[in-house]
Amino acid sequence: MIRDQETLNLLLASISRFVRERLIPNENEVAETDTIPPALIAEIRELGLFGLSIPEAYGGLALTMEEEVRVAFELARTSPAFRSLIGTNNGIGSQGIVIDGTEAQKQHYLPRLASGEIIGAFALTEPEAGSDAASLQTTATRDGDDYILNGSKRFITNAPEASIFTVMARTDRDLKGAGAISALIVERDTPGLSLGKIDRKMGQRGAHTCDVIFENCRVPAANLIGGREGVGFKTAMKVLDKGRLHIAAVCVGAAERMLDDALRYAIERQQFGKPIAEFQLVQAMLADSKTEIYAARCMVLDAAQRRDAGDDVSTEASCCKLFASEMCGRVADRCVQIHGGAGYVSDYAIERFYRDVRLFRIYEGTSQIQQLVIARNMIRSAQN
Questions:
Q1: Mean pLDDT score, 290-300
Q2: Is 222 found in the same domain as 191?
Q3: What CATH number did the domain enclosing 30 receive?
């Protein structure tokens, strides 16, 4: 479903050059300061990267799913913090509005998200509800022309920088399960909304998460996504299906970067009078990594093309997320091993990537949740 191969090639070449010349040289600074330099953020805005998947009518590039994953392959070859900054605007931070929002909501928020004027965040996970999203406890009680939000959200990506939050909340206290959940757009400066301290994480410095707390937070009813109660969980699942394909593509790009670095090191590093790349056990790690990356890339492209064709890819998206994230972890481990002692010190990027990519197996649904989704979809399909 690539609409214009020549234009896409130019975009990919431009992003690849930007990653190579501007982002990779600044990786260490971001890791050390836990901050992306404002000048780089301005350049990212100028390239239009905040609006990759937002419709053209609202100022975005309206990439197809296949085009988006091909861009993700390139963006992921540097620190995940850079992709995370724009990822929520293109993914979970905006797609609820893109997919199910009213026209007024789209007109008001999407152009500013596409330009990077505002940052979006997706507030689903709670202290007692992560993988079991249908059991969330945050409530939204109708009061005239408003909803009053109470509850807290945890590990919300880009929350410290976000201007708007897509918040999943329970609008029917009596109804159990997913049918009671609605999605609301909550602006950062709304009275009653506060943020917790920024989390100190294992990796991905420069990409921030924190708690988001609602205490009698009054939100206009006009901010109910789609103008309907009870469909928020369905909106979230549609958003996550797309997000899982995107993250799977990110896993592929990160693995390709790690393997390139490891191959270069293996060719240059001498032991017993010759490059370690000539040793068969090192070659086996290189070959296994290359094979798994190729398999994951093919899976992601196939699922993206199926989604563009209008197919339901819930199962395939979970397959991609499961395989690609686990693959990325295995590649990271092998690449540290190829570097030997050098892979355990921060002089080489692989030490940072090893920590950074661990998160891929957790967010957007853990590997174990992906297994459940895949198996349950298989069983449901077989019974119909």
A1: 98
A2: yes
A3: 1.10.540.10
